[in-house]
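Please go through this protein, sequence plus structure tokens, and consider how the sequence yields the tokens. Keep your notes short.
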Amino acid sequence: MNVTELPIHDWLPIVFLGLMGLSALIYVVLDGFDLGVGLLSPLSKSESDKNLMIGSIGPFWDANETWLVLAVGILLVAFPLAHGAILGALYLPTMFMLVGLTLRGVAFEFRAKGPAHQKQLWNRAFFAGSLLATVSQGYMLGKYVIGLQTGLYAVLFASLVAVCLTASYGLVGACWLIAKTENALQKQAVEWARKLLIGTAMGMLALSVATPWVSPRVFDAWFSFPNIIGLAPIPLVSVALVIGLHVILKSLPNADDKYRWAPFAMTVALFILAFSGLAYSFFPYVVPEQYTVWDAAAARESLTIILAGTLVTLPMIVAYSVFAYKVFSGKATPLTY
């Protein structure tokens, strides 16, 4: 079915697919950096630096998770068939992700408010929750990419994606710390980012090779003519961003703290390109090889009502996020109550 030939009312599922994809992308970027900070937290031996790292995400981490709730909510109400298929196949990693996010939230509060002798316990819990949530999300993404297949091969592929996503979250977390911290911690964050950039680049390369190999449809979508020419900017710009990141990280930190946001912005651009490639690879499927966006969509009358509510809710979430990031735009300080 050609999208351009659809009657106007059948564009509603595409609108909701776009809203769901946008929410998922924003979640990966925003919660990605605070999960990344959690993953990096054990690498700092200084308790004061640890406090500063966690303080850098203090005003943001819980609001960042709103985008995950929005993405899953849209999946549930706009694409109920896909919601059942995806969460039915991924209920176990979904449960682990929720346990990780809960553990991280509890540890975040208790490490600041609990007895001093328990702080190390909650530090470890904070790392464990961040790692569990990240690995679970990566595993779920891997299973989704190959159409929720089962078996040893599917497990190995999903595990590879989990490792790659962990490195990517660590990279964006390190780049966040470069922008939000100073002195020794900033220098340490630059070193972390340099190492994680290598892992992220290798992971993206491995997935770029493996994904078309496991899906003939994806292979045809990318490597048939003239698609291969039209899509060439995605891998080429991604390579340029990786090289640019490597160059700019070699120049940081500097005396005037110039370009401190550049690594974070470039990493976000890399995420956007990767997400765009995935979106192109699977459209028009909501569940790869199973349900198209029109097959899985709710009744059009329901979508119309839901869209009205979304158009009220979404600007409020965006406005709050922009306000929070503007208010806390300066350098991080230790989190206190």
